[in-house]
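Worked example

This section walks through a single chain of length 379. The input is the sequence exactly as stored; nothing has been trimmed or padded.
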Amino acid sequence: MFFRLYRYSLLRISRRKLNIFWSLLFPIILGTLFQLSFGGFLDQEVSFHQIPVAYVEGEGADAAFQAVLEELEKGSQMIKLQPAGEEEAKKLLQDGTVEGIYSNGGGTPKLRLTVSGQGINESILSTVIGQYRCISHVFTQIGQERPQKIQAAAEDIKKERQYIKEWDISGKPILNTMDYFYSLLAMNCLMAATAGLMCAVEFKADLSSLAARRVVSSAGRFLVLLADLAAVVTMQFLYLVFSAGYLLFALEVPIGNQWGLMLLALFGGCVLGVTLGFFIGVAGKLSENAKEGLCVGIMMVSSFFSGLMVAEMRWLVEEYAPWFARINPASLIVRAFYSLNVYDTYGQYAQCLGSLMALSLLLGAGSFVIIRRERYASI
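Given that input, the structure is written out below as tokens.
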């Protein structure tokens, strides 16, 4: 009996066009817009690549500076030199083929840098020529005042000093913009609240004609309810898996590679969303439209404080109201994904998943207390 009711519930839920749009199509559209907005920024500002530079050698060129540039190209692979004449170099810079022009000799000052922008790469090119000038000046002073110390100074400069120890927690890139995609998945989980609300409406005989017919049927009310809730969780979870797969494989958003734990977090968020909607549906005497508005309001407020609209909001809540971050459903889901992508331990992930389960059990128990003695004098 249960599996037949479960199958019929699946068929009925799969035909709700409005639910398909908000739970499946809307997150996909929003995720695509996020990627279009942040994808180019990540490629330009985060991903490092060799900086193309035109090199113009004039009369009286500094051979030492040329050697430094060749070492930066072949050794550290910081820049990519392209020898050119002066006019050709200007054209390459204007076309965007190179990001700067190093001029060596043939004018005053002997070493010159020409750029067309003020980005990170231009700052790196400026730092190279600035450091070379500084070191050249130091050697000139030493040669004039203490020529016997030139060899010692050269040996000292060759030594690399590291004043900051770099400690990578997990070896994975940490991008601030990922919070938007995590919050999007969290919002998608909480969208299941509207489906849980529909379960409550179809369970209460004073709210829908379908529930009234179920009351007088031979099937037990709670068996029907269990089948409905299981079908809703199943459909919403499938929507979530499709949305996460679209982000990861179609848009190539690095949301993580631990698929088992990611799906478990999505399932926990999905169950919480359904139980939240069902609790709102069975509690109180508000109209169906008012309860639906309450579900949407809770979903949007929770998503806002998890960083969906402003990525820094989650960190502000963590700093000034950490207690709220521990009970905010969207923040718990985002923290679960974040901990999987950053830490090599699962302490925070387990804590977030445990909190999601505890909230789901609390809402489920509250719903059961409300409906367990509900009776109808007439329908």
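What to look for: The two ends are 25 Å apart (CA to CA).
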